[in-house]
C-alpha cells in the first residue's frame, strides 16, 4: 500500500491532520506520522503541517537530522507530491520576516509577511489579526488540488502572516480579508494551503482527497 508521510517535527496539528488524511484516503493509502527521514524516503507523497512562528517551525524542521536533505531529494529531485499546511506552507517561501529575517526552504519564491488589511470605511470596525475563521476561496488559476469544489467554497484559516509569492504563476487561490490574502500556492509537484484542510469539513476532505490522487 502506498504511504503518505505526515512529518512530525514538533510543530503541527498532527492528530487532526492524520485523522483527516486517513478519512480522505479511505483505506487506499497508509498515513504515517513520522520524524524518521528513512520513512519519508520510502513514502509516495509528503505532508508538512505547521503551527506557530515561522522561525520556530523552520528551526524545528532543521533540528530533525537528515529531514531537510530527504525532503529535497524526494520532492525536488524525485518529484514526490508535496502538501504544506499553514506554516508548513509558509516554510516553502524564500524567507519569513517574523521576528527578523529567516530563510525558508526556498521552493516557492517569496516572503512571509505580516497581514496588513487595507483601510476600512469609517463605520466599519478594523479587522482583527490574526485572521481567524471561515473565509471564501477565490481560485486564481485552475489546479487539481481544488478540482470539484463547490462555488463559494469556504475554508478555515488561523494566521497572522501570509506568503506573498514573487511569481504570479505560483499563486493558485486567494481569500479576502481587507484585501486579497494568499490561500493556496503551488509549483509543479509542490502545493501549499494557508488554511487548514483538516479543519475545513467537506471542503477540506475534498482537497485532501484531491492531493492523495494527484499525479503531477
Mean pLDDT: 93
Return the CATH architecture.
3-Layer(aba) Sandwich
Estimate the strand proportion.
Answer: 25-35%
Q: Round the Cα radius of gyration to an integer and report it.
A: 16 Å
The CATH superfamily turns out to be Class I glutamine amidotransferase (GATase) domain
Q: What about the largest sheet? A: 8 strands, mixed
Structural class, by secondary structure, is alpha/beta
Count up the domains: 1
What brief labels describe this structure?
alpha/beta, globular, 6 helices, Rossmann fold, 216 residues, 14 strands, 31% strand
What does this structure look like?
- The chain has helices at residues 14-25, 37-42, 54-62, 67-77, 87-90, 201-213, and strands spanning 3-7, 30-34, 45-48, 82-85, 93-96, 102-103, 108-114, 131-136, 138-139, 154-159, 161-165, 171-176, 180-187, 190-193.
- By secondary structure, it is an alpha/beta fold.
- The strands form 3 sheets. The chain has an 8-stranded mixed β-sheet. A 4-stranded mixed β-sheet has the order 6-5-7-11, with helices on one face. Strands 8-10 form a two-stranded antiparallel ribbon.
- The mean pLDDT is 93.
Q: What is the compact description of this entry?
A:
This protein has 216 residues and is an alpha/beta fold.
Strand and helix map with partners:
Elements: E1 3-7, H1 14-25, E2 30-34, H2 37-42, E3 45-48, H3 54-62, H4 67-77, E4 82-85, H5 87-90, E5 93-96, E6 102-103, E7 108-114, E8 131-136, E9 138-139, E10 154-159, E11 161-165, E12 171-176, E13 180-187, E14 190-193, H6 201-213
Parallel strand pairs: 1-2, 1-3, 3-4, 4-14, 5-7
Antiparallel strand pairs: 5-6, 7-11, 8-10, 9-12, 12-13, 13-14
